[in-house]
Design brief:
Layout lengths: L1 H23 L3 H12 L5 H7 L3 E2 L5 H6 L4 E7 L4 H16 L4 E7 L4 H6 L7 E6 L2 E7 L4 H11 L1
Parallel strand pairs: 1-3, 2-3
Antiparallel strand pairs: 2-4, 4-5
Length: 157
């Protein structure tokens, strides 16, 4: 009986740790992405900006969302297979949320948007472009600390 009680306690503790670990790693944008993928719908740029999430940029919406934007735009050119790109994802999402209404954060999947990536001269990943009034004012290639991206964002806001 004591062994059974002990194993139940251990099982309960392990389950609790699993739940706590899962909750500690929860990112609200992941929930939106999961809902989008289940429904088969892409989140519109308007919705993404309203909730403080990165905007999916394509050749079709680039002119409207970047060139004609009335705000500064940070563009993240990335690939799903790129490790440094994945490591920058939380920083990019946090910047979109933290600067909601002041900065548009866009993401371009270079594998799906090859022509756009070529047109913008992307040669390494991740590449970040800071665009103001339709013109590139800063280019970063490779992983960067949040502080470096943020310093340039603040400089151009």
């Amino acid at each position: 009986m004591q062994i059974r009680t002990g194993s139940m306690v251990v099982g309960t503790l392990l389950a609790g740790l699993l739940v706590m670990g899962t909750l500690g790693c929860f990112n609200p944008n992941d929930a939106f992405q999961a809902l989008d993928s289940v429904s088969g719908n892409e989140r519109s740029p308007e919705v993404a900006k309203k909730i403080g999430a990165p905007v999916k940029l394509t050749a079709d919406n680039f002119q409207q969302e970047v060139v004609n934007a009335d705000q500064v735009v940070l563009i993240d050119f990335y690939a799903d297979w790129c490790g440094p790109c994945r490591s920058m994802e939380p920083i990019v999402s946090d910047l979109a949320s933290d600067y909601k209404g002041k900065l548009i954060v866009g993401k371009v999947d270079v594998d799906k948007e090859q022509a756009l990536s070529q047109r913008m001269g992307i040669q390494g990943l991740p590449t970040f472009l800071l665009v103001k009034n339709g013109k590139v004012v800063k280019k970063f290639v490779g992983s960067r600390p949040r502080s470096e991206l943020e310093a340039q964002i603040k400089k151009h806001l």
